[in-house]
Amino acid sequence: MLEASQCLQDVRGGWHEAQARASLRPEDRSPESSQRSLSRAIASMGTAPACDAGGFWMFQEDKQWLGFSPQMSAALEEVYQQWLQEEAGGALQPRDVPGVSPVMQYLAEFCCQGPKQRICRLSELHAAAVPVKKEARAEEIQALRRKVAELEHQAQQLLNAAPADGALLLDLQQTLVPGRFVHWEGLTGCVVACDSEAAIAFPDLEAAVWLPRAALRPDYAKELLSRPGSRVRYGRHERAVVCGRAAPFCAVVELLTPDGCKQRAKLQDLSKAAPSVERPAVGDLVTYKNGEELDGMVVQSNDLGLCIRCGLKRGIEDVLLSPAEADQALAQGVLRLSELNTLEPGMFVTRGEEVGVLFAIHADCSAVVDFIGARGWRGPLRSLAVLAAGSVQDEALAMCASISELLALSEAMTKCGALPQRLNQSLKAWPELHQTGQC
Length: 439
What we know:
Keywords: Coiled coil. The chain has eleven helices and 23 strands. It is α+β, with helices and mostly antiparallel strands.
């Protein structure tokens, strides 16, 4: 590659040579002549053929010289040749004229003093004079070959590890561990302890029941419904949003109901509710304009109106709207369902280049995400995006989801402290389990 000064001499040389030989009449020195030539070249830039003769144009970025696209290079070469062949002999420096396109102003800068960006022209003469460094090229090729071989080796290792990863994933999904929800005979229970059999706590029983492992099936759907921010239906198909588990080792959750009150419900009595599409209901995520756009969650939606909990930098603020005010705000666009309303616990999300599982959504529009390699991140829900389909292998996502669930179980274990008395009776023979929370 030529030095930058050598490349620039080709452009500057044409400019000074044209100036020296020009003997111009006053009417020939009009800048409009140069601008017309530039305009004709720019107009044809979209259909310009690849630059295969004359010169190739380059630009400087971060102290490196990089080549323009063939179309752009051809357009610049055409401008340069037309400029030299004008009636003024190319001696006039093109100037910025109000109203012309920014592209023209950029192209005109190649002969200005102190241009904003340096560009240069590499002619066939220069190209022929560039020495070919065969040794450097050979070393470059060998380095590329080594890199390809390394990548092929890594790919083969991944292929060889796939069966083992599949077995590990299946084990993570099917193993009964304390805190995991299971399905048995139409009931949903929670694993308390494991041995040849498993001790299961059911909401309607005073003590845990030992059942054969083969009769139990992990209930992932109920585990998702137990996460904060999950929208559910209960009772006579009433809508509610889950606040979290009512207690460790218990298949009962706390719900926030439409009247803004909390109540407990059995997981087995809950079903998933879809996000609202018209009028916001409890648990829906909305955007409210009050001087600024605020993200919030509906925490009350009944005959008394709406209550929206918004997360602010200075804290949390509740916005209260009567039924009439809510109708007016919806009609005027002051209140609307947020584009974030489609997000639900268990979804795969991204934050920049990080990929993870959305574990929970809180009323202040903050989220808890277990990213691959970094669990328990908490931050604004708006900083997340739904993972595009096919961008990550399904096996990796399934593994991430299982690990996220198991991490939640371990957190439940650490929070349990002293187990309820009715569970202690079932664990008298397992003091070490009571202390460590391990099978």
